[in-house]
Amino acid sequence: MLTNFDSFPAVFFDRDGVITVPISLNGKGYAPRDLKNFQYYEDARSALLRTREQGFLNIVVSNQPDIANGLLSDRSLSKMNSKMLSELALDDVIICPHNSKQNCICRKPKPGMILEACKKHAIDLPTSWIVGDRNSDIEAGTNAGIHTVFIDRMWNEETGINADFKCNSINEAVDVILKNRFKF
């Protein structure tokens, strides 16, 4: 059995709209489907380094339904994941390749990817956080019992209404986490 001394706090980051710049179309953000369109937000590298330096594990949890929908190959996704792991201060990238019709246990807003990471990395949920730009990210964090930060990218229908905190960038999200990490 794990105790708090055997486990670590983590920050779970959504990928598209948090770390990587999505393709914007009709007020919504969509995941890039190839490496040439796969770009990080300017402040992503420094933000991830800051949480790492403060003792957090950094884990990406991302719905990637384009796999199930036949719009993104496993090989392209693998290249994107490898790029992030080699260039950013990340400990893991966990992907849900299913679409909403498949009703899997890993697709956000369900907490499956977060719980999978806990098994792999001995994560202490009460001291952990999720940063996302969609209501489903916030709901997944709430379902897992972790603190939530919503990055408002002004997407249609994405309000972050149930988030513990709201901000406008990954850097601001990390500011919120580091300021509030011992208040809960």
What is the approximate shape?
globular
Helical segment tally? 5
CATH architecture type: 3-Layer(aba) Sandwich
Q: Name the beta content range.
A: 15-25%
Give the number of domains. Answer: 1
CATH class: Alpha Beta
Gap from first CA to last CA: 23 Å
Rg estimate, integer Å: 15 Å
What string gives the helices and strands in order?
EEEHEHEHEHEEH
Poorly predicted sequence stretches spanning 5 or more consecutive residues: none
Count of distinct strands: 8
Biggest sheet, spatial arrangement of strands: 5-4-1-6-7-8
Would you give an account of this structure?
The mean pLDDT is 95. The protein is of the alpha/beta class and 184 residues long. The strands form two sheets. The protein has a six-stranded parallel β-sheet, with helices on both faces. The chain has a two-stranded antiparallel ribbon with strand order 2-3. 30% of the residues lie in helices and 18% in strands. It has a single domain, classed as HAD superfamily/HAD-like (Rossmann fold, 3-Layer(aba) Sandwich). Helix 1 runs parallel beside helix 5.
